[in-house]
User: Fold this.
Amino acid sequence: MNFKIKQLAIIGATASGKSDLAIKIALKIDAFILSIDSLSIYKEIDVVSAKPSKEELKIVKHFGIDEINPNQHFSVDIFIDLYKKVILECQKEKKNLVIVGGTSFYLKSLIDGLSEIPKIDENIKNIVKNKLTNLEECYKFLTLKDPIYMKNITPNDSYRIEKALLIYEASKLTPSEWFKQNPPKPIIENLDIFNISVSRDILRERISKRSNKMLESGLINEICYLEQKYTRLPNSMGAIGIVEVLEYLDGKVTKEEMIQNISTHTAQLAKRQQTFNRTQFKKIISAPLEDLEKIILNSIQLT
Assistant:
């Protein structure tokens, strides 16, 4: 008989205390942790992502942390593949799963699902590879064929242009038409989602403390290392905390202004995260951090 995995998600704004709570819950319900954080996924981006410490990562097995290099592309479909691998691992090890993080868009993608893409053989891959030698022409062609789908794709986004072209060449349908004919199917259903409720004043204070702690922990040295190794071109180098340090290194702002900018931009991100969490999930239980552990454990016992 297959082991029935209990799954739950803990979400909340950045610096709200999600990681610590997830470890507590995981230890009590014998679970692995899957991180949904757009920066912690990258190796070597440690200080600025505020990922769990090496000691914390040893306490509970984590997935979604240190999975790819900073110059590699990451997307929703890659995350969903990762989730499916984690579920197989949970099944094998008879473990439950706690999903935790601030990038709730990934969680929503699990609940809403993604459309399947057409079968792509080697011949199609070679056709597309040849066409991609002229990225500009591919972008123009796709924009002419499917302006609605392409409106949110930039001319230099080679990953998404390639994906759109593969769909078109394999199906002979525009991406918009393909996705219309192949609607998404949920990947996970009936998931309990717990949201950490915290006032903006307390959050701003915690963000300010965390920003200063990052500086003390070697933030500037980490960004210097990342820039030297990967340049400023990868998407990961456009993250909050990295951009502001690069401005400081360019002499555009003082160190004090840099930290203030990180705190301000992080607080703005936290506000967007709170709005997303409040509006994008139908079933969600919100409570202050100090109450949520008991609520989650009671909920698990009832199911």
Notes: The beta strands are 7-11, 31-35, 62-63, 96-101, 192-196, 285-287. Residues 255-280 form the longest helix (26 residues). The chain has two domains: 7-113+186-302, 122-181.
